[in-house]
Write a structure and sequence with these properties.
Blueprint lengths: L5 H20 L9 H26 L3 H23 L9 H17 L7 H32 L1 H9 L4 H14 L3 H9 L7 H8 L4 H31 L21 H9 L4
Length: 275
């Protein structure tokens, strides 16, 4: 569809620089980094990674062990990326749980029913789409839940004072915010064919498939993604509510006797931290 030549390279470079410039001009940033730097790094990494994958994919799809290893690598990278996006402390590795809970059962179901053969040409893109969907839902759900707990820590403490358990108090506050992670997937499904023509549909058409077949494949992808993302958001919300994923560091307050929680300990509990 696109000619791979010098013109394409120039256009891509210009678009990447434009994105970096706009992010820098608008001072887009979070508490950890500026998004101008993140956009530049992501663009360069994408170019390098796609070049490597393009060079290896022909060999990977011909060897089953390498194929399964590649899928495992995709999962590991997704878990690491999601975890470090959600939190910077040692609880980041729990992000692997919602990604696995969302994507793994669907991939296994598709393989066992024969809808997706253990073949690189089919398995890698399908697994990649589902793992990527779980990654996005985990990041959005986890970040929104933790940010809501931080902003509304007083309400969590009030719920605890009324007799709610730590988990239930956090769930009451974090659930609506985390549930918002499902909105992009819902909107994409609602508007498919009217506003957007997603990649699976276009790719099937360009590959010579009939419009009916392309539509069926795209519908399958959208439904599978909604299932994956619903599970991922539910699991990451539960992990945040149970204090498995936090943004707090465990530390005892100076002068506080062991076993008697002080104000900082109460705030940590409200944020999902040490209990």
């Amino acid at each position: 569809m696109l000619p791979v030549d010098r013109t394409l390279g120039v256009v891509l470079a210009v678009l990447l620089l434009a994105a970096v410039a706009v992010a820098a001009w608008a001072h887009l940033a979070d508490e950890h980094d500026t998004y101008a730097r993140g956009i530049a790094t992501a663009g360069v990494r994408a170019a390098v990674q796609l070049a490597v994958v393009a060079a290896l994919i022909g060999w990977v799809v011909k060897h089953e062990a390498a194929l399964l290893g590649f899928v495992a690598l995709m999962f590991a990278v997704a878990a690491r990326t999601a975890g470090r996006r959600v939190t910077r402390n040692g609880t980041w590795w729990w992000a692997a749980v919602p990604i696995a809970a969302g994507a793994l059962p669907v991939v296994v179901l598709l393989v066992l029913t024969g809808l997706v053969p253990v073949d690189g040409i089919a398995l890698i893109p399908v697994a990649g789409i589902l793992i990527g969907g779980a990654l996005t839902a985990t990041v959005l759900g986890g970040r929104r839940a933790l940010e809501e707990l931080r902003l509304r820590a007083g309400e969590v403490e009030a719920a605890m004072a009324l007799g709610f358990t730590d988990r239930d108090a956090r769930l009451e506050i974090a659930r609506p915010a985390a549930s918002g992670a499902l909105v992009p997937g819902l909107d994409q499904t609602r508007t498919v064919g009217l506003v957007t023509l997603p990649g699976a549909f276009v790719g099937m058409l360009l590959g010579g498939a009939s419009p009916v077949t392309a539509g069926a494949v795209q519908f399958f992808v959208l439904i599978a993604l909604m299932a994956v993302q619903a599970v991922a958001v539910s699991v990451v919300l539960e992990l945040v509510a149970r204090g498995r994923i936090t943004r707090t560091e465990s530390a005892r307050e100076p002068g506080r006797k062991p076993g008697r929680p002080g104000p900082k300990a109460v705030r940590d509990r409200a944020h999902g931290g040490p209990r």
